[in-house]
Design brief:
single chain; 715 residues; alpha+beta
């Protein structure tokens, strides 16, 4: 099946509904913390209602059914006819999951099937009329019959030979009352109020005219005794007082008596009932009605113009001074176009680098100035294009309240999640790439970090554990941190598990520092859980996290204190489009190290090296660092004999481990654009891609983790 609607309409629905569903996931988890928050309840109700309306317009009846069931639940909640509890939230969150699944099918241009009948039944049980009576959500109530009443009242009366055509007869008034109360059920026009002792015959009027007293009784019937204030005051002398509860001032109409209702007064009544200018006017012919006989057209002009109340004049003035809404300031652009623009900016960066190199070697001052200006403009353009690709980290953080809530409930733990720095921006590609690693780390904190409530109480902690997920920008990098106040890590226990599982021998484990012991959790197949569950215990997940972060040219660091908690910090570049590198020479070939991984560079006497456990090492600040000659791995026909004399050493940081590489020359720092390798070089170990250097040559970008895994004997 497929949609037959305009693609633009469908896209609008997908964009709006997608944003609402993301927000609903956060709001529903927040609701358990603030179940009495009426604003939050109303916001959730509106969210389900909006999605339901869009789905109904598209004819997605199955999606409408689920949204309608959830909407009814929140209609009862916001009217305080239901209370928020864990069971109710389980059902509503299950409904949201179903809506998200249907929404995913709609994004694939497929019509979703019906929801699970058990879910629909559970939603209906929550809104069972016997248990919690509440009507289905409806728009704000409006006075339905009054438009007809006004229309009937505004119908012109039959012109008589003596009277004016402005007057309403008893028959018409009786029809009006029948329309209001039902046939013969309302008060009679003649019996509604006692007639004056000696009513004066109006000049040129008819004996069938309605008096002020009768009309006042009608208003009392409509609005309650003395509650209607629509009568328009006038500077005319007061009419004779009629024997009714309240005094009425009525202007004398031309051609009628002082007790007759004028057009102006009737217009005021219509305005009170319908709003200024929205009701039928007595100056316009009304549609014929079966309840009242047809009549002639009313007079062209009323006897006296009634003053307009200030409250009614304001909307009219606003309408006259209406200002057109501001034009749209946003445009929806396909991300492929942004990628193309970013690629072209990358090419411009390469050209700029080339021109900068030429400008440095040239003695032409004008050329140097032009190249300098180009450098500034290119930098600004690069920054502006990068901003168009930026998204707040909230796009990732938004899913974690639900993840923590569901996992904590299944483990019977009390956990509070705090989100900090949600407004931090980073590249769209990084937002998507960081989602899975962060899910693994947060699940690990919930499962392994936070203790059971009774254990926390015995150790003097609060019953509820806390996990803080934060993001911040530090220069051209993003720092992500996951803090928990749980049990922390025991380095000795981690070492013993590593030995038991064959990750390393006992001697190697004894030499590990606490920080290195914490990093054992990233070893493949490593797990502190003895029992395998659907949450953890298989030893997969954390090694995937480290691999993914390394692919993003990032690093991950663990700091823990037994009994106090654990902090995991991830550092990734702000964007993957433009990569800062350190250019080096190995033989005659240029290679590039990602600058984020470079710790330090120094000149070393290569004779001052040692061999430890079969591995060549150097001592830097009383610490042994493995040392490798890159030309032995990357240059064909390289002399593998250990070189003597001086050499350049680049120290690379990989997690908590440092590795030294001997290179033949240093070129310097350069921003490059990563280009994929061709088919012949695709899959070459240790190569992340290629780029064009400032002198027009080609440099290979090194993937250090893959390089070590492929060539190093012991790491």
């Amino acid at each position: 099946m497929s949609f037959e609607l305009d693609e633009d309409i469908l896209q609008d629905f997908l964009v709006e509904a997608g944003e609402i569903l993301e927000l609903l996931s956060e709001q529903l988890v927040e609701l358990e913390k603030r179940p009495q928050d009426s604003d939050l309840l109303n916001a959730i109700f509106r969210g389900f209602h909006t999605v339901k309306g869009g789905a109904g317009f598209l004819g997605l009846s199955n999606l409408v059914d689920v949204c309608h069931g959830a909407e009814n639940v929140f209609d009862l909640l916001r009217n305080h006819k239901l209370a928020v509890n864990a069971e109710l939230m389980d059902v509503v969150l299950s409904a949201l999951d179903t809506i998200n699944e249907m929404f995913a099918l709609i994004q694939e241009r497929e019509i979703p099937g019906p929801a699970d009948p058990a879910l629909i039944e559970a939603l209906h049980r929550l809104t069972d009329p016997d248990a919690a009576p509440a009507p289905a959500p409806e728009p704000e109530p409006e006075i339905a019959p009054e438009p007809d009443v006004s229309q009937e009242a505004a119908e012109p009366s039959t012109a008589t030979s003596e009277g004016g055509i402005d007057d309403i007869t008893d028959d018409e008034f009786e029809a009006l009352l029948d329309e209001l109360h039902g046939s013969n059920k309302g008060p009679s026009a003649k019996a509604a109020v006692p007639e004056p002792a000696a009513p004066a015959a109006p000049a040129g009027g008819s004996g069938d005219d309605i008096t002020d007293d009768e009309f006042e009784a009608l208003l009392d019937q409509l609005h309650g005794k003395g509650k209607f204030s629509g009568a328009v005051e006038s500077n005319e002398p007061e009419a004779p007082k009629a024997p009714v509860a309240e005094e009425v001032k009525a202007p004398a109409a031309a051609g009628g008596g002082g007790e007759l209702i004028a057009d102006d007064e009737f217009e005021a009544l219509l305005d009170e009932l319908h709003g200024k200018g929205k009701g039928p006017s007595v100056n316009e012919p009304a549609a014929p009605s079966a309840a009242a006989p047809k009549a002639a057209a009313p007079k062209a002009e009323p006897a006296k113009a009634a003053p307009v109340p200030a409250s009614q004049a304001a909307p009219a003035a606003a309408a006259q001074n209406h200002v057109n809404p501001p034009a749209e300031t946003t445009v929806r652009v396909d991300t492929k176009k942004l990628d193309e623009i970013m690629n072209m900016v990358g090419e411009l960066v390469l050209v700029r680098n080339r021109l900068l190199s030429i400008g440095l070697n040239a003695e032409d001052e004008e050329l140097s100035k032009a190249v300098a200006n180009l450098d500034v403009v290119t930098g600004d353009l690069q920054g502006a294009v990068m901003q168009t690709r930026m998204q707040p980290i909230k796009k990732v953080f938004g899913r974690f309240p639900r993840v923590v809530r569901d996992l904590a409930r299944s483990l019977k733990k009390d956990i509070n999640l705090e989100l900090v720095g949600e407004e931090t921006d980073l590249d769209k590609n990084l937002v998507e790439a960081l989602a899975d690693p962060l899910v693994h780390l947060v699940r690990n904190s919930v499962d392994h970090g936070i203790e059971m409530p009774d254990v926390r109480v015995k150790s003097g902690k609060a019953k509820t554990g806390t996990i803080v997920l934060s993001a911040s920008q530090e220069g051209d990098h993003i720092l992500l941190a996951i803090n928990d106040d749980g049990a922390g890590m025991d380095p000795e226990r981690l070492k013993s598990i590593a030995v038991e599982r064959g990750v390393m021998d006992q001697d190697a484990a004894n030499r590990l520092s606490d920080e290195e012991a914490y990093n054992l959790i990233f070893a493949p197949g490593f797990s502190t859980k003895k029992e395998i569950s659907d949450i953890s215990g298989r030893g997969v997940g954390m090694d995937v996290v480290k691999t993914k972060i390394s692919q993003l040219n990032g690093s991950i660091h663990i700091d823990s204190a037994k009994g106090e908690g654990t902090r995991i910090t991830i550092k990734v570049p702000l964007t993957l489009a433009i990569l800062p590198t350190l250019m080096v020479l190995v033989g005659k070939q240029t290679f590039a190290f990602p600058l984020a991984t470079v710790n330090e560079i120094f000149h070393l006497d290569l004779s001052q090296t040692n061999v430890v456990d079969g591995q060549l090492t150097i001592i830097v600040r009383d610490r042994a660092i493995p040392l490798f000659y890159l030309d032995h791995w990357l240059v064909r026909g390289s002399n593998r004999e250990r070189r003597r004399g001086q050499g350049h050493v680049v120290i690379i940081q990989q997690g908590t481990m440092q590795v030294g590489f001997v290179v033949d020359g240093l070129i310097g720092q350069e921003e490059v654009v990563i280009k994929p390798l061709g088919q012949m070089l695709q899959g070459t170990p240790g190569m992340a891609g290629a780029t064009i250097t400032s002198d027009g040559g080609i440099a290979l970008i090194l993937d250090v983790p893959a390089l070590l895994k492929r060539y190093a004997r012991k790491m």
